[in-house]
Design a protein that fits this description.
The chain is an alpha/beta fold. The chain has 18 helices and 17 strands. The longest helix is centred in the last third of the chain and has 15 residues.
Length: about 475
């Protein structure tokens, strides 16, 4: 037999290599929600290969696929991100933390941002296992240990006392591969807050924090703060008397009558100013600083005295060790009197979020779920946060952006995640109802799809809850 000419062999190889492999997943006849525009693309066909959305068409194609989902009468949204969670509690709670990971998936949360704790080595193992398909759970972005001062409140933090300590801490965080830096204020010298921000940005690491109230918020923004955790600090920045309140706070330190965090916050609540907030918003936009308001945990903590959580359905999925960590905040709340000011329930928080969004500041959705944060449960609390964002005045599309494309932008990944577009990663949630009509429909989940090849239908989701309940009651 004659051998083929060289050019023929090359042609055969080219044809063989260029033949498209079957798609891993096709979703047929589905309504795609474009969270960026707020539009619905009706009756589309979505083709996924190797974890990526390859094609989106208006008409079906005659192609092979490993699996097909009928999306008729359903709505497809990007996988959700919870931008403020915690895994912590030390070695004795590692297993209970790990058991909570699948609950995020069951609620359509395919990525989370861990805002610091004391189980970083385990987190690194979990996220490697999740990436490799060896463990069910969301992809984890983590700050690792928080940066704080000597005598810090949260175990596992890194204590810094000077600029050399800050650079050493950054070396340590970089060496373990953190995704961002979290600076905490429980014992930090306020004079080190801005240098810590600047040191993180010099290394191209996003940085967030709990800002000492002795610091001017706009100065944190100008120093390079990527986002501010919780509503308190932007609330302070929107005060027309921030400079005077800050000065009084500093000068009263060490006296018999220190102003303190609560006193300063009360003064701030009386001096909110719309024009000041507009200037602050423009600065935040210019510097690229966003906010994670965490409204839901504030709502829970504001009402701990008055709401009995002992019959919460989701306690069934929480291990006894983590449930025990809930006791601290609850006991403090029960000791307070009804006439005592509640820092979690001061006027104007929700209005501030609405105005920041209206002014164009980037909002990120975060629940603060995790040990020690009483009755703020993994997965479902992100949906509660979305509901409070819409209650504040955000549109459902804006609330969804806060948990999708905005969240991805924090890590400069909004060209890969957070939207349903060709070339984007296939982290998706198929809903039975349209969340633009009512944001509560984000809980009406039919399928969760992670990386295009991990498909969780109703049976798999039920199994997640059954397993979590079994672990919690062992």
């Amino acid at each position: 037999m004659k051998s083929l000419p060289l050019f023929a062999l090359i042609l055969l190889l080219f044809v063989a290599c260029s033949e498209e492999q079957p798609f891993h997943l096709v979703i047929e006849n589905v309504n795609i929600l474009d969270v960026e525009s707020g539009d619905i693309l009706e009756n589309r066909y979505l083709y996924i290969r190797d974890g990526v959305i390859s094609e989106i068409t208006e008409t079906p194609s005659d192609v092979e696929s490993a699996e097909t989902i009928d999306g008729s009468g359903r709505w497809l949204i990007p996988g959700l991100w919870d931008m403020h969670v915690h895994f912590r509690g030390g070695e004795e709670l590692i297993e209970e933390n790990a058991n909570l990971l699948p609950l995020y998936i069951a609620h359509g949360v395919t990525s989370v941002r861990d805002a610091g704790g004391d189980v970083t080595p385990s987190i690194m193992e979990w996220r490697s296992e999740i990436q490799n398909g060896e463990r069910s759970g969301p992809y984890i972005y983590t700050s690792g240990p928080k940066i704080d001062g000597p005598g810090y409140r949260w175990p596992g933090s890194i204590a810094v006392e000077n600029l050399d300590d800050i650079h050493a801490a950054m070396d340590s965080l970089e060496s373990i591969g953190v995704d961002f830096v979290k600076v905490n204020d429980s014992a930090l010298n306020p004079e080190l807050f801005l240098p810590a921000i600047q040191a993180a940005r010099e290394r191209n690491l996003p940085v967030t924090g709990h800002m000492p109230f002795e610091v001017i918020f706009s100065e944190s923004v100008e120093a390079g703060l990527t986002a501010t955790e919780h509503i308190f600090y932007a609330y302070k920045g929107a005060s027309s008397d921030e400079q005077a309140i800050t000065r009084e706070l500093v000068e009263s330190r060490g006296t018999d009558n220190p102003l303190g965090f609560l006193g300063a916050l009360m003064r701030v609540s009386e001096t909110q100013n719309e024009s000041t907030l507009l200037e602050l918003s423009e600065l935040m936009i210019e510097e690229g600083t966003g906010i994670i308001p965490t409204l839901y945990i504030m709502d829970v903590l504001a009402n701990l005295r008055h709401i009995d959580h002992t019959e919460d359905e989701f306690l069934n999925y929480i291990g006894p060790g983590i449930q025990e960590t809930y006791r601290g905040r609850l006991e403090l709340a029960l000791q307070a009197s009804d006439d005592q000011p509640n820092i979690y329930d001061l006027p104007g928080y929700s209005e501030l979020v609405r105005q920041l969004d209206e002014n164009g500041v980037t909002i990120y959705a975060g629940s603060d779920a995790g040990p020690y944060n009483s009755f703020v449960y993994p997965g479902i609390s992100l949906h509660k946060e979305l509901q409070l964002l819409t209650d504040s005045g955000l549109s459902p599309a804006a609330a969804l952006r806060a948990a999708t494309v905005n969240a991805a932008s924090f890590f400069d990944k909004d060209n890969q995640y957070g939207l349903i577009r060709e070339g984007f990663k296939a982290d998706l949630v198929l809903l039975n109802s349209n969340p633009l009509q009512n944001i509560q429909y984000t809980t009406d989940i039919r399928y969760v799809i992670q990386n295009g090849n991990r498909i969780y239908g109703e049976g798999e989701i039920d199994e997640i809850f059954n397993t979590a309940e079994s672990h919690a009651n062992q």
